[in-house]
UniProtKB/TrEMBL annotation:
It comes from Streptomyces coacervatus. InterPro entries: NAD(P)-bd_dom_sf (IPR036291), ODC_Mu_crystall (IPR003462), ODC_N (IPR023401), SbnB (IPR023866). SUPFAM superfamilies: NAD(P)-binding Rossmann-fold domains. This is 2,3-diaminopropionate biosynthesis protein SbnB.
Length: 353
């Protein structure tokens, strides 16, 4: 393996590109402190996707009869515009990992050259996935609250890696809270998250809750980042104060709560599948009328977010976001001269030998 300055510059007519491997450590080094740049990138990708300058097919779920809570998901995608890249995220979700302290998700991202189709990089992608998820959530929190009172009390239900990244991206893009509420089924996880908040210099009061109802009722911005496979929050009256809800884990809320709320998603067809709460709401009502729009509709001003209703953002997670963040990382690593190229990775490059 060699280190080179660039493995994916303009190579018209030069054959297959070099193939580079980018480690999780390198990914983290590039993305650390770049939250505002990533927010701008994520917004640009949403706008490209909304304009039809992307291909984002349905995700494919690999499930296991002997491990029903686990799955591996393939997210193929293609992004146009100035970002122009194709690729695939291959991400596993094994909730039982959390019992041993291991993160639930692990992932790799393959980037493909749009001219030849050859892959030119493989990146560790759990950090990329968490980053695009968190950046998307922070962007939604900002844009969905612009016609409402800006939240001052945030609550996290589920306190794993995704929650930590969302908090980081919220604070790095200008959010400050008078109070931060924390709830997790695991007291040790909740305590660990509180420790992270204290170490990161979180302003305001930090409250550990012993039940989800007290947290929901006391916060005007709610972040659901759990490993729930079915709704566990059922009472719409908990939301009578009309909070803004980032429903990142997608399966926490009873359909009745969604039907009493204004609902926004990242992509309608992607989100209404795989037994997500919006999918259950569609099955219950027989239609999609409960949806008020997409995040891109909000970005472009095609819809107005109401002030007098609970607002729920349910993002399925788009593969084009992974591609954009992955390409950002790849290009920065190349600029720094740190690409680890696998010599001879592509061997049979002559059609006739």
């Amino acid at each position: 393996m060699t280190t080179t300055e660039s493995a994916a510059s303009d190579r018209s007519g030069l054959g297959a590109p070099p193939f580079a491997v980018i480690s999780g450590e390198q990914v983290q080094q590039v993305l650390h402190g770049r939250e505002q740049e990533i927010a701008e990138l994520v917004e640009a990708v949403y706008r490209l996707h909304g304009a039809g300058d992307s291909v984002n097919p349905p995700s494919f779920f690999l499930r296991f009869p002997d491990r029903p809570t686990s799955r591996i998901i393939a997210l193929p995608a293609s992004l146009g515009g100035a970002l122009r890249v194709d690729g695939l995220k291959w991400i596993s979700s094994f909730p039982q990992n959390t019992k041993s302290g291991l993160p639930r998700a692990s992932a790799v991202l393959i980037l493909n050259d749009p001219d030849t189709g050859y892959p030119f990089a493989c990146l560790e992608s759990s950090v990329i996935s968490a980053t695009r998820t968190a950046s998307s959530a922070a962007l939604a929190a900002d844009r969905l609250s612009r016609t409402r009172s800006r939240p001052t009390r945030v609550g996290f239900i589920g306190t794993g890696l995704i929650a930590r990244y969302i908090h980081t991206h919220l604070t790095a893009t200008g959010w400050e809270f008078e109070e931060t509420g924390v709830y997790d089924l695991s007291p040790s996880s909740a305590a660990g998250f509180r420790g992270y908040l204290e170490r990161s210099g979180t302003k305001g009061h930090i409250t550990l809750h012993d039940n989800p109802e007290s947290l929901v009722r006391s916060c005007d911005l709610l972040v659901f980042a759990t490993v729930a496979s079915a709704p566990h929050i059922h009472d719409p009256s908990w939301f009578s104060h009309h909070p803004l809800v980032l429903h990142v884990s997608l399966r926490d809320l009873d359909p009745g709560i969604l039907l009493a709320s204004a609902n926004y998603v990242d992509d309608v067809d992607h989100c209404l599948k795989a037994e997500t709460s919006p999918h259950l709401a569609e099955q219950l009502t027989g239609g999609r009328e409960f949806l008020d729009g997409t995040l891109n509709d909000v970005l472009t001003g095609r819809v107005t977010v109401p002030e007098d209703r609970t607002v729920v953002f349910s993002p399925f997670g788009l593969g084009v976001l992974d591609l954009a963040v992955g390409k950002f990382v790849h290009d920065e690593v190349a600029r720094r001269g740190g690409l680890h190229v696998v010599d001879g990775f592509f061997h049979e490059l002559r059609r006739h030998g």
